[in-house]
Design brief:
With 448 residues, the protein is mainly alpha-helical. It is 70% helix and 1% strand. A two-stranded antiparallel sheet has the order 1-2.
Length: 448
Amino acid sequence: MIDFNALMSAFHLLGGSWEPWLVVVPGILIGLAIHAVPGLTTSMALAICLPLIPYMDFLQALIFMTAMYGGALFGVAIPAVLLNVPGSAAAVGTTFDGFPMAQAGKHNEALGLALCSSCRGQLLAYLILLVLAEPIANFSIKLGPPEMLVVSIWGLTLIARLRGRHLARGLFAGIFGLLLGTVGMSAQGAARGTFGIAEMLDGVPLVPAIVGLFAAAELFNLVGRDYIITDTTRRGVNARRILAGVAETFRHPGTVLRGALLGTGIGILPGGHAIANLLSYSEARRAAKDPESFGTGDPRGIIAAESANASSEGGSMATLLALGIPTGGATAVMLVAFGMHDITDGPAFMRDHKDIVYAVILSSLAQVFILGILGFCFIFVAGFIVKVRLRALVPIVLALAVIGSFALAQNMAGPITLAIFAIIGWLMQRFDYPVAAAVVGLLLVDGI
């Protein structure tokens, strides 16, 4: 399973020079900060930093990019908890219980839960990758459309569980999301539902749509209130209560382990990182003796979603390092670094540079502990959001969402999509249609 000669070489690569470690802290901080702007993504941050890659050696470049990736996996949870803004599809599940906890004045505990779950998920994923990198890669190459279809159908069962109080409305919302996901070019080259709009040929811009459905619609509901948390005594950032959330994570080892295994396994599939958090949330709810508590601020919901989201990085990195196959936008950008350094990707990389593969895995294990420290400090900065008056916060967040959606789409299609889906999301909430079910349908349509 483990090539111990290559492992010793990896220790020498990491221990023989301090240069690879210089990029870890900046990488994690960039990953944490990028998702403070709704609509900005990890792949965008990685792409922006690509001009720096030729000035680093190859190992240092990979460590820098994995540090950004790991930081972003937790960073996306902060606006999801504090503002009900899932900055990417990977944070949708976190909003279900994270925001209700924040509204109840338990934002410190919720962020502690998210941080610890994210760190433990990444740690378990990379330990699995350390032992099973080659078997995972060999298994993933055998997976194709039939297996993705099975995962997608499994994910569709979420719609029934996210139906809200009315099954028919939940099913309608899920079907509505599926229909939206079919917009664009079909596999046969036919345009579907584009109404002659060229910008729609690539489909509905996913991140602006999700930000609109969740964030902008929720911000409309906040208009007229003074603060997110009405109790003035519970608005502060409290280290003891953050640590209480961290401790709560250790009371649910089964939820963390299940989330990590699901996240790692689904992370090897194309686009799997986007639905890993939802599937883990669904399984945690199914296994619970009191599933009705999920969605009301249950810590297990955050633990399940965050551990799976974080561990999906391990599955994605397995297919990237061992096979040269990106499973998402972030790993696709990371693959560019191979070409910049004239390194052949694919199975040849695993064969000829196994020491670098192990060095990346070992550095990622160390990054987990650095992320824990930096993430804890970052919570104190982000946590002051709950102290800002909503009449100031709402326009700022809306402006950042518009800027982020424009930067992502590089044209007005992003902001227009955000505005349209904000209205749709508000109407769905107004008439008691579950927004989450529509998002699930939108995410899963590619696998069907």
